[in-house]
Amino acid sequence: MTRPGFVRFDEVSVRYGEGAGAVLALERADLAFAQGDFVCIVGPSGCGKTTMLQTLAGFLRPTGGTVSLDGRPVEGPAPERGVVFQQPTLFPWMTVAANAGFGPRMRGENRAQARERVEYWLRTTGLWEFRDRYPYELSGGMQQRLAIARALCNEPKVLLMDEPFGALDALTREHMQEELHAVWRRTGMTVVFITHSVEEAVYLGTEVVVMSPRPGRILERIPLPFAREAADQDIRRVKSGAGFIAARERVLSLIWGMQHDA
Ligand SMILES: Nc1ncnc2c1ncn2[C@@H]1O[C@H](COP(=O)(O)OP(=O)(O)O)[C@@H](O)[C@H]1O
Ligand SMILES: [Mg+2]
């Protein structure tokens, strides 16, 4: 079922610090989108992307406004909101399977069910045969896949990703994009994805949200048909299509415009 406003930011402001040194990182940001959307947020460094994601994650309380998910205000971190950072934050002393199953285990969930879900997500992310290894034995891309699998084992209502592929080499990154895209298509989950790469945003997203800095605001929303069309299309064809190129140029011109104004 698709509900508009599954995720809502209502006039969300965030101020860091007090007095003359205070930074208004986000000013009355309004954004709402539906369940199943894949929302990519782009914008110059320091425009408040991470701040915005942290308010939805529940790590940061806004100074003004409200953030809500599925009709309920966000009041702190919860497993219904899975978070993946640029650097995978894994437990080095736990095996791959133990890392993936950490959330369900902590909540004391039914063991057989939790094991089944761990197996499902480790298979889906291509890590099942590495289940008894430790994070240091994995490549950077595999570690990041494990961080994603771990978040998905909690069956989140929304997956929040802050430049998750930013630290990977170009080939691994493309591969991870395709994998994430396939998981999204298969599950229909809701994703909020921050990236510096306009190409990545236009390829993955059902919509690109462009933010402007100082103070951080939503500048423009660009709807994209490609993510849903790509299911049965060759991605190279999608990326060389006129619609894809026009959307990418629109996002790039907005970002260039901001840099010249700065
Ligand atoms: N903990 C903090 N204390 C003070 N200022 C911060 C803090 N975190 C972020 N900022 C400032 O808020 C603004 C937005 O930061 P951030 O959300 O990290 O931007 P982005 O992720 O788009 O690069 C920046 O000017 C940054 O310096
Ligand atoms: Mg950031």
From TrEMBL:
<dbReference type="InterPro" id="IPR050166">
    <property type="entry name" value="ABC_transporter_ATP-bind"/>
</dbReference>
<keyword id="KW-0378">Hydrolase</keyword>
<protein>
    <submittedName>
        <fullName>Taurine ABC transporter ATP-binding subunit</fullName>
        <ecNumber>3.6.3.36</ecNumber>
    </submittedName>
</protein>
<keyword id="KW-0813">Transport</keyword>
<feature type="domain" description="ABC transporter">
    <location>
        <begin position="7"/>
        <end position="238"/>
    </location>
</feature>
<dbReference type="InterPro" id="IPR003593">
    <property type="entry name" value="AAA+_ATPase"/>
</dbReference>
<keyword id="KW-0067">ATP-binding</keyword>
<dbReference type="GO" id="GO:0016887">
    <property type="term" value="F:ATP hydrolysis activity"/>
</dbReference>
<dbReference type="Pfam" id="PF00005">
    <property type="entry name" value="ABC_tran"/>
</dbReference>
<dbReference type="GO" id="GO:0005524">
    <property type="term" value="F:ATP binding"/>
</dbReference>
<keyword id="KW-0547">Nucleotide-binding</keyword>
<dbReference type="InterPro" id="IPR027417">
    <property type="entry name" value="P-loop_NTPase"/>
</dbReference>
<dbReference type="InterPro" id="IPR017871">
    <property type="entry name" value="ABC_transporter-like_CS"/>
</dbReference>
<comment type="similarity">
    <text>Belongs to the ABC transporter superfamily.</text>
</comment>
<dbReference type="InterPro" id="IPR003439">
    <property type="entry name" value="ABC_transporter-like_ATP-bd"/>
</dbReference>
